[in-house]
Amino acid sequence: MRIPLIAGNWKMHNTAARTRELLGALLHELGDYSGPAEVAVCPPFTSLAAAAECLQNTSLVLGAQNMHYEEKGAYTGEISPLMLAELGCRYVILGHSERRQYFGEDDALVSRKVQAALRYGLVPILCVGELLEQRQARVTEAVIRIQLAGGLAGLTPQQVAGLVIAYEPVWAIGTGRTASPADAQQVNAYIRQVVAEFFGDAAAQAVRILYGGSVNAGNAAELLGQADVDGALVGGASLDAAGFAAIVRAAR
Ligand code: PGA
């Protein structure tokens, strides 16, 4: 049984003060929600400490949106896995398409980050997804296969079983254009098939594969109802407490 994960990717939104307000509202909206989904929020680095405080003694967990692969060193402006672990992060989003697109992250770098996260007990949420041109050229599967081969390189089947992969078609992120439930299911099933090929069936059955890209309260139930969609990575809609809570409740 894979426990569904609903993770909010706040991106570069919410100061520490706003974080306290939003999490207060979210906890209120969720009330005594007790599952089945695990709920994570991924605020910007500067709001992690405030968020950790708000989430104490709640069932919500904390994630970060990026990290460096070294524990410490002369890397001006970077944040290490040790620092995230100390703040109580459970998850870290790695290889998000915005990191790949605007900050030049490639699969080799993402792979180093994935391995570093695991060394510090963080669970990577490894993002993969194709560009619009790639979908139109019908190379979605080839693109995803390369991203998986790169991002998961060197991991053991046990490590892969414990991580989270998020399928996020780049053309669906922040655009209001969602993959159809059938398309999301098709690619998520393909991801599971590739994981089985690389790491065996047990890892493929255990790994959680999310969908991300314009998920909202209106489309979440149908997306989350797909057999290989084990949760959602939610950007824009996670900035609204009621909307995000509705997505959490859509997970069965
Ligand atoms: P979106 O972002 O929900 O705003 O499309 C998803 C993501 O980038 O993780």
Can you walk through the features of this model?
The structure is a single chain. By secondary structure, this protein is α/β, with parallel strands linked by helices. It is 44% helix and 15% strand. The chain contains 12 helices and 8 strands. The chain has helices at residues 16-30, 48-55, 81-86, 97-102, 107-119, 132-136, 140-151, 157-161, 181-199, 201-206, 220-224, 241-250, and strands spanning 5-9, 38-42, 61-64, 89-94, 123-128, 164-167, 208-212, 231-234. α1 runs parallel beside α2. The protein is globular and about 45 Å long. The structure holds 2-phosphoglycolic acid (PGA). 2-phosphoglycolic acid binds next to β8.
Domain unit count: 1
**CATH level 1 name:** Alpha Beta
Major beta sheet, specifics? 8 strands, parallel, barrel
* CATH superfamily placement: Aldolase class I
Please name the CATH topology: TIM Barrel
Q: Which H/E pattern describes the elements?
A: EHEHEHEHHEHHHEHHEHEH
Distance between the termini: 12 Å
Number of strands: 8
Mean pLDDT: 97
CATH architecture: Alpha-Beta Barrel
Structural class estimated from helices and strands: alpha/beta
Overall outline: globular
**Helicity level:** 40-55%
Bound molecules: 2-phosphoglycolic acid
Topology readout:
Blueprint: E1 5-9, H1 16-30, E2 38-42, H2 48-55, E3 61-64, H3 81-86, E4 89-94, H4 97-102, H5 107-119, E5 123-128, H6 132-136, H7 140-151, H8 157-161, E6 164-167, H9 181-199, H10 201-206, E7 208-212, H11 220-224, E8 231-234, H12 241-250
Parallel strand pairs: 1-2, 1-8, 2-3, 3-4, 4-5, 5-6, 6-7, 7-8
The protein binds 2-phosphoglycolic acid.
2-phosphoglycolic acid binds at residues 9, 168, 173-174, 212-215, 233-237.
